[in-house]
Amino acid sequence: MSVMITLHLLAAVIWVGGMFFAYMALRPVAASLLEPPVRLTLWAQVFTRFFPWVWASVLLLLGTGLWMTFGIFGGMKYVGIHVHIMLLLGLIMMLLFFHIYFAPFRRLKQAVAASDWQTGGAKLGQIRKLIAVNLSLGLLVVAIAAAGRYLQ
Asked: Fewest CB within a 10 Å sphere: which of 1, 67, 89, 117?
């Protein structure tokens, strides 16, 4: 169980921490210092490097979470409400990530490759809003994970 919890926590830290860094530190600096061609190219490449880590995190979070819930605790009826909430919010986060990855991120890369900075800027703006939602949900999940068992 300790290995599963460790993998679960590391996956959450990588995903949520990466979003926090990108949104709160990199985004404002890039927006204030870089012109659109460089800024959009930077983001396309940053996401290209970060998103494989998110895919791995999604797989680990889902796999370890379900394994602990069903393999150790015996199913959803034996875990606290905080686990139900974490699963629901985690699934919503995963769906939002899938949308980001397969729609605006794909279009951002296409726009950068075509030097279509207006479209690229629009797609980056869409990604920014969706990551803000996912980051908020991720921070909420972390708080629930940390305090949830004490709320019962």
From this structure: 1
Q: Is the model's pTM score more than 0.90?
A: yes
Q: Provide the residue range defining the domain that includes 94.
A: 2-150
Count of structural domains, the chain: 1
Rg (C-alpha) for the chain, rounded Å, is: 17
Q: What is the 3-state secondary structure (H, E, C) of the chain?
A: CHHHHHHHHHHHHHHHHHHHHHHHHHHHHHHHHCCHHHHHHHHHHHHHHHHHHHHHHHHHHHHHHHHHHHHHCCCHHHCCHHHHHHHHHHHHHHHHHHHHHHCHHHHHHHHHHCCCHHHHHHHHHHHHHHHHHHHHHHHHHHHHHHHHHHCC
Give me the pLDDT at residue 148, please: 87
**Res 19 pLDDT > 70:** yes
